[in-house]
Amino acid sequence: MKKQSLAASLTALALILGLTPAWAANTTYLDVDRAAWYATSVAFCQQHQLMDGLTQKDFAPQEPLTRAALAESLYRLAGSPAPAEPQEEPDEEQTFFPDVGEDHPNLAAILWAKENGVVSGYEDGTFGPEAPITREQIAALLWNQQGGSQREQESPAAPFTDGEAISAWARTAVNWAYETKMMSGTPEGDFMPQNNATRAEGAAIVMNYAKTFYNLSYGYPLPAPETVRANPYNSTSFLLNEETGYLSYLGGPYTRGIDVSSHQKEIDWPRVAATGMDFVMVRAGYRGYTSGSIQKDAYFDANMRGALNNGMKVGVYFFSQALTPAEAEEEAYLLLEWMKGYNITYPVVFDWEEQDKDDSRTQGCDGNTVTACALAFCKVIEDAGYTPMTYGSPKKVYTDGILLEHLQDYPFWLAHYTKDTTPTTFRYHYQMWQYSSSGAVDGIEGRVDLNLCLTPDWSNWSSGYVRPDYSWLLPS
User: Fold this and answer.
1) One domain for residues 34 and 136
2) Domain that holds residue 455
3) Would you say 474 and 269 are in contact if contact means Cβ atoms under 8 Å apart?
4) Are 202 and 307 within one domain?
């Protein structure tokens, strides 16, 4: 058994050798170690929704790849076309597989695969949807989808040491798979045609196939970039009250505010309102940075009621650790449930911050992923009638955080703590500035974040502007 496991690992490594560049291999699956050879392939398949986990949390990389799972991946690569309309009097050749019922989760994919000659089933007429698929069968399926039977010229024979073990019906396809670098063998030169492929190997093959024949690249597809607007504020118009530590802006309208969470514990809201603070951004919840579970902030409802009952305007933020647009969408929908019944007149914010810890699920996450998640979150919030907003620091925007050129349709909350609260040198447009994390506000024990909002009226933020449709970023 140990020898077989080692051979399988070497084969898997050979499958992706030379085709996998360095990339942040972050996935939402708890059983995919970011250091595993297949992590990048699984992340790629999740980004493009080409292969699902066996559960929401588990990809099951060492489980066998099934015939139905591969058919589903090829079907999605083809754009998930609708099955052809059945003829009124189908002949025997059009009879569907008897072991694939109408309630099978991969029914559409298997129908499409048969209609397009990708699969033909077993000799007894069955498809065997849950049966493991061998390496030579994978080669045949990929070859069929690429119109292999119509090719005028065959590929040269692959130099596998076990070439005689390859079934006669699969040799042409295996030769083609080797020539196109879809599949390789072990360092010893074996192809192992009858070995069942694991789901990890399947992800690597699907990734290579998608990159070669569908021109898919790493990362989520984003809308066309727009020119990022420049910082319009006059730095000499910011005025600091040395006694309170509060900023004012003499160059236009502004409001002062704070942002709070369970870290501030119980707050005396009448005293806070008496300080002249106009608004508060309340944390509604967060996603954990290890297992990714979502938690509601323990003080959310108390803070919302306290601020609103004392005449303060309120916005909401969610501390996200989303790794996919689907997770960001999940966060947004749950947030909408929590916000029901509250008069929210300030933005609803996607606050994504990398946790630089060894066990952090977001460690090393790239800006493309964060931006795709931000777009998904903002779309849900906007469709519900609220003003969405994104959040970030200069370091993350300038380096590997959110990509503002894809987020110009939404306001931005800047987090930048400058020395002695001097005006920020951030060169891009922002609507709200979190200028201190060590503010002192009567009614709050300990330190609290201080904010200056330079767009105090959010009622007309989207007036007369039709935003692009980002629904294509979200899972169907």
Assistant:
1) yes
2) 235-473
3) no
4) no
Q: What is the DSSP letter of 459?
A: T
Question: Which ranges in 2-134 belong to alpha helices (H)?
Answer: 2-16, 39-47, 67-77, 107-115
- Shared domain for 270 and 204, answered yes or no, is no
Residue that has been written with the tokens 């009124």 in this structure = 88
Cα separation, 174 vs 179, whole angstroms: 9
Beta-carbon contacts of residue 123 (< 8 Å; ≥ 6 apart): none
57-86 as b/e: b if 16+ CB within 10 A = eebebeebbbbbbbbbbbbbbeeeeeeeee
Q: What pLDDT digit, counting tens, does each position of 6-27 carry?
A: 344 444 444 444 344 445 578 8
Residue-wise pLDDT for 182-200, tens only, equals: 888 888 999 999 999 999 9
Averaged pLDDT for residues 41-54: 93
**CATH number of the domain encompassing residue 421:** 3.20.20.80
- Count of structural domains within the chain: 2
pLDDT value, residue 117: 83
Decide if 304 contacts 270 (C-beta within 8 A).
Answer: no
Element (H, E) at 209: helix 199-213
